[in-house]
Structure formats: structure tokens, C-alpha cells
Amino acid sequence: MSETAASKNTGANSQPAEPIAGFAYALGAYILWGFLPLYMKAVAHIPAYEVVAHRILWSVPVAGIILVALRRTADLRAALKSPRTLALAALTAGLISINWGIYVWAIAADRALETALGYYINPLVNVVLGAVFLGERFNRLQAAAIALAVIAVGILTVKAGGLPWVSLALALSFGTYGYLRKTLPIGPTQGFMLEVLILTPLALMIVGWLAATGKGHFMSDGISGVGLLMLSGPVTALPLILYAFGAKALRFTTLGILQYIAPTMIFLTAVFVFGEPFSHWQLIAFLFIWSALVLYNLSLFRRS
């Protein structure tokens, strides 16, 4: 049946069904991100900058194998010849490496709750970035959601021990990364490969310096240390690539709901596995955030 005939039969207002594979890709990505604190806790004895360096280095072969399997290497070669694309990719690479560094440090410093909060408020940060950079207007539900989030941050600042800078830094860095990443004229998998390639020389310098000064953990921790740091590549690259495939196949509203799986898993892990303290003021702040997210998702449903 032709596309025209099919569209007539399904009706003008109907939407194509979302493929099960796309849902599975996105779900897999968020679940892997939800389990990531367990891995980060296992490498908590290693400085954050060393972990990030290995995340970069061991992501290269993982992303490279996937690109070859998908036959998308031509796009990468073209991007490497474009100064504008390289400059933009260098900017996004810098942002994502900052995000990774803060995240790794926060888990090791027993501040996983703050990372969960950061990824809860990330969608609301995206709304603000859209207003600032794209001139988009808030609807009433979005404005109310942002107001509730501001109240939550205020409660944490005044009553729960200070400004939640880890949460805000994670949300802002990842939100800005996502905004700029959309303008990168290359596919998601190729773009990720380009970013880690740009970061590779610096990562090699860090790992080489650590090895030369005897401060590195790659070989000094024995086989377990080698295995843990090599695993940093798959745990970094696979969820990002799964997410990229899922995002291509799913509606924005579906992704909007699924994106809360990871911070919820991180929140539960922080409280019930890591045993981080959770005061009543933090609970009140999280209730404000969760209420804000309900309003935000209602705005997504109305728009769709």
C-alpha cells in the first residue's frame, strides 16, 4: 500500500504508532543511567578526573564499533573536515565532560541525592533555556512548574544546608549540552564519537601523567582496577547511544515521561542503598519538585 493510501485510511488526525523497539531503546537507556551510581560508587576511590579520562578513552572503541556496524563512518569523516562542526562539537564535548566530572565527584562524595534532584529539574531548565535562547513563551502550567522548582531550591538553600549547587550545575550543564547538541549537524551516534575523539588527546595526557607519576589506578589496582576502568566506556557510551535510537522513534511526550526513571532510581539508591541522610526539609523540597514535574507533564500532554 502506498503512503498516500495509508494516510487516507488512517485519517488526517491519527499519529503513527510508536515502535516497540524505540520504547525498548529509551527504557534501556534510562534504566542503565539509573544503575550508574552503583558503578560510580565502585570507583569512588579513584579521583573524578581520572574516571572521566577513562570514560572518554574507553568510549572510543565502543562508539567506533557501533558506527562501523551501522556504516555511518562517512558522516564522521565529513564532520572532521568541517571547522564549524568541530568547533561546536568541542563546545558540547567540554560541557558533557564537566557534567560527567561533577556527577562522578558527587556520587563519591555521598551526594547522590543532589544528582537525582539535578536530573529531576533538568526538564524545567530546558524550558527556561528555550525561553532565553529561542524566545519561547511559558504556558501557565510551565510557569507554575518553574515557580514550584524555584521554591524547592529556595527551601534547600535556606533550610537544608545551602544552595544545591551540584543539582543546579548538573541540570544547567546537561540542559545547555542538549540545547547545543541539537544544533550539531551530525547524527547522535556520530556526534558522540566526534566528542570523545576531541576529548581523547586530553584524556591520554591525564592518564599518561598519572602513569608516569605513579598516581594512576589503572594498573596499580590489579585486574579489578583494569576491569572497572575499562567498563567505564560501555557504561558511558551504551546508554547514550540507546537513548539516541529511542529518541528518533518516540514522541516527545513519551520521552518526557520516561526521563524520570533514571533520577527516581538514583533517588531510591541514594536513600535505601547508600543510606544518605534525607531530612524533612529535603522531603518538602522534593515534593515541590515532584509537583512541578506533574504540571510540566500535563503541559506536554496538552501540547501533544
Summarize this entry quickly.
This protein has 304 residues and is mainly α. The chain has 13 helices and no strands. The chain has helices at 3-10, 20-42, 48-70, 73-80, 83-108, 112-134, 140-159, 165-183, 188-213, 222-249, 252-258, 261-273, 280-303.
What is the number of strand segments?
0
C-alpha Rg (nearest Å):
21 Å
Helix content: over 70%
Class by helix and strand content?
Answer: mainly alpha
Shape: globular
Contiguous helical run count = 13
The unreliable regions are: 1-17
The tally of structural domains comes to 1
Rounded average pLDDT: 87
Largest sheet: none
> End-to-end distance, in Å?
28 Å
Strand content: under 5%
Order of SSEs, N→C?
Answer: HHHHHHHHHHHHH
Q: Care to describe what's here?
A:
It is built from 13 helices and no strands. The chain is mainly alpha-helical and 304 residues long. The chain has one domain (20-303). The longest helix is centred in the last third of the chain and has 28 residues, at 222-249. The protein is globular and about 50 Å long. The chain starts with a helix and ends with a helix.
Main attributes of the structure:
about 300 residues, globular
Secondary structure elements and their pairing?
Elements: H1 3-10, H2 20-42, H3 48-70, H4 73-80, H5 83-108, H6 112-134, H7 140-159, H8 165-183, H9 188-213, H10 222-249, H11 252-258, H12 261-273, H13 280-303
Helix pairs in contact: 2-10, 2-12, 3-5, 3-9, 3-10, 4-9, 5-8, 5-9, 6-7, 6-8, 6-12, 6-13, 7-13
